[in-house]
Design a protein that fits this description.
CATH class of the largest domain: Mainly Beta
Order of helices and strands: HHHHHEEEEEEEEEE
Structural class: alpha+beta
Number of helices: 5
Number of strands: 10
Radius of gyration: 17 Å
Distance between the termini: 22 Å
CATH superfamily of the largest domain: Jelly Rolls
Number of domains: 2
Length: 203
């Protein structure tokens, strides 16, 4: 499958269009996420790769879900060319869109199990963490509301910004209302995998 996440030119063009749709200047967007205007310009031109953490921060600033963004960017790259329109209708089926990492699971990986077409869609994610890894690595996720999940393999540590932690065991179901930003961590010597269910696009 063509993964738009790993094609800097396609990703950059779609980021530029989204920034313009949201009516943000290059300078304002770069300042908001703590990078230079020149670096953001290079990312939008496809001349520099955009890390997962930076992509997350940019989309958070644009008030747009990563799941929505990748769904639309992937659809338009495969069907209509390298540009997307936010919330455009979708005619062709796509599955397991890559949001982070790689399909060999050699790095922390998030897969969107079905594409999103509206802000009311349930977001189903497959999280896979290699031994001794975390997602995100340098920042924390933000979510207002409750999300659910099911632990498919191994143990998952949910680490909160206030230094509290929650361990999820294999085959456990869980429901969490995070009071603080959080990240997912695998502290064991074996791979862990979980199904995450969010009531609306959040990432």
């Amino acid at each position: 499958m063509y993964d738009v996440l790993h094609h800097p030119a396609a990703l950059g063009k779609n980021l530029r269009i989204l920034r313009r749709v949201r009516e943000h200047s290059l300078s304002d967007a770069a300042q908001a996420v703590g990078i230079s205007k020149a670096l953001l310009s290079l990312i939008e031109q496809g001349k520099r790769r955009c890390s997962f953490e930076l992509l997350y921060q940019l989309l958070l600033y644009y008030r747009y879900s990563l799941g929505q963004f990748i769904s639309e960017a992937q659809h338009h790259n495969e069907v209509e060319g390298p540009y997307f329109q936010p919330m455009a209708p979708r005619q062709t089926p796509m599955h397991h869109l890559l949001l982070s990492g790689d399909r060999n699971y050699t790095s922390p990986t998030l897969l969107l199990l079905r594409p999103l077409s509206s802000p009311s869609d349930l977001e189903l994610l497959r999280l896979v963490l290699p031994p001794h890894s975390s997602l995100p690595t340098e920042t924390f996720f933000h979510f207002d509301g409750q999300f659910r999940g099911y632990m498919l393999q191994g143990k998952l540590l949910i680490e909160f910004a206030d230094a509290s932690e929650l361990v999820i065991q294999q085959e456990e179901e869980f429901a969490i209302i995070p009071q603080y930003p959080f990240r997912f961590r695998n502290y064991t010597d074996t791979r862990c995998e979980a199904l995450l269910i969010f009531p609306y696009p959040w990432l």
